Request: fold
Amino acid sequence: MRTALSLENIPCNLCGKNKAERLATQRGFSFVRCRSCGLVYVNPRPPADSLLSLYADYHGREGKDEASWERLMSLIFRESANLLCSMHNGAPRRRLLDVGCGFGSFVAAMRERGWGAEGVDPSPTVVAAAARKGLPVRLGALEELQGECGIFDAVTMFYVLEHLPDPMKALRKASDLLAPGGTLLIRVPHTTPIVRLLAPVGLGRTLYDPPFHLYDFSPAVLREMLRRTGFVHVRTFPGKSTVPSRLGERIVSTLFRALAAGLHTLTRGVVLLPGVSKTTIARKPSD
Reply:
């Protein structure tokens, strides 16, 4: 895939510096870690204006369809819906934007709970599928939304931030869209510890999944990104696991989630198991 795309060098998205060490090369793309702040990212990478074209068939990769995506995220969506409803209990006509909404499953779930939920996604295929179900989902990117500042009580990004060319810009845009006191809910992978663990035995050579994934976030780095973009009350926890179609992957996902949740509970929230996807909640300051 690399040979079909021109590449450009970029500075660290968090601190702006150009001092990085290479961690791994996968599918011809180098993942590096900033020596200043610790952000892990692809460098060099395809230009931002060429990245959207990669997502036309993204949701059909590896034989996936709408049902498999819905099953994959079912536990995470249920947990997140319960959490957001409890955080905004009693608020009149709560509004939510799901960024990278895919087929619109989370939008539908929140609308069933009485929220004015809508979505945005860069893939024409999934937007058309969501529209056929009558869901308010628009085609495009988060940064393209105009004239909607301060109108959402919650913004969600499930495995989206790692795909975006400019995460800091996306987080600032999310803050602009949120009303004072609004909630940002993010789910991101933390792949680097697993890649480093498996590298000596020659495994994990595609786990970063470039060029679709451009970044990898540790909890500390994501917390700093949220702080710098004005968010407060940041909380990260293991959350529910995905439900892969393959039995072996499902067992591994469940076991690691159980281990991560157990350690998190036993240490009163201090230990976050490296290499396990996590959910992060943050709030926009109230006026």
